[in-house]
Amino acid sequence: MVSGSPTITTANFGRLCQQLPSFSPDEFVLVTGGLGYIGSHAALELMKAGYNVIIIDDLSNSFSSVRWRIQQLAAAHCRAEGRPIPQLRFHEADYQSPAMKVILEQYATPSYDGGDHPRSQIAAVIHFAAYKSVPLSILHPLDYYENNVCGLVRFVRLLGSFHIHTFIFSSSATVYGSKANTEKPLREEDVVHHSHDPNRPASVEGLACPYARTKYFCEAILADVAASDPRWRIVVLRYFNPIGCDPSGVLGESPRATPTNLFPVVGQVLTGQRDQLSVFGRDWPTRDGTAIRDYVHVADIARGHVKALEKENTRGEPFRVYNLGSGTGSSVLEVVRSLEAATGTEIPIVWTGRRPGDVGFCVAANARAEKELDWTPIVGIGQSAKDLWNYLLLQQQERTLPAAAT
Fold first, then answer.
1. Is 211 an active-site residue?
2. Which of 293, 228, 205, 259 is nearest to 388 (CA)?
3. What is the tens place of the pLDDT at every residue in 282-329?
4. Which of 95, 107, 211, 239 is catalytic?
5. pTM of the complete model
6. Residue 85 gets which letter from DSSP?
């Protein structure tokens, strides 16, 4: 436990277990890529909900300091509610490396039923450790297939050997391919891997880049795994466009690699790291000519993982897919205007051609998540823009503190 955290007593144990329907106080959720953008916010929301968390991250696109930011925010939240502060452990490792077996062995325990097979304190895994850049996947497809697909196969096999069978997978709206261009909200049924309807076989159309194909292949592999072994409980969450950051300004998006998503790129323009924002295409068949996307606050995305973890035990299905989207779309230009309103700064734009792999319209139908997970996004684009600006201002203050102190 973290120093200063309340002791788990008989009195509060029952309340804690109500929050964790199938978890005991000595169990953990393992989060791969847990110091990255979405992974760090998911780790925070898990701890705020009362879950112990183990983070695996190789720091190739993140920073170790994020761990302490998660810890700080989770501790403040739990103290404010008078609840025990869950444990947060960190292991620096590539999820594909031999080190993962050593790490999992640390959490293996003798079988409760006296059998020969070890059980694990790790009750569930949330997997974020994938490469995610569309342009880089086109330039380096083998790297993407190796890390995203081959790595997943080895990892799932390893988890199964430790009797860890609850798995939440970070997927993407890119699996819908050219179906996004129908200009209709995308439903989970638009891309299926196993179907009980003989007239509706597994289908995919027009996957536009290697990144999208890796996500589709991983989904298909996981569907096959779940169909082959009833012990597995696998949830696939298809993200649309995560934006924003924790409203405290303490936790945000700070990749080591060059960002390609709209919000962090605009952040670099606002902080002087870029001269202007490149907007890819002004001739899309949309209301202002710029591409329309379904933007969702990253905290809402993170809460979707907590909901998936809570609800998978009640549904009892081995494999289920959910969109995490708002159900409404905003154009790139509309988002830029929201950021200008939040910051009071005009954002210079340069218009360029469409990028390979892009689509003009990509919006989620989210009725399934709302009905089955009791999840809907609650933070709008305006607040997301304010949260980003708050984060950028705090980062600037932190960078100037040493100079000010001298």
1. yes
2. 259
3. 999 999 999 999 999 999 999 999 999 998 655 678 999 999 999 989
4. 211
5. 0.88
6. P
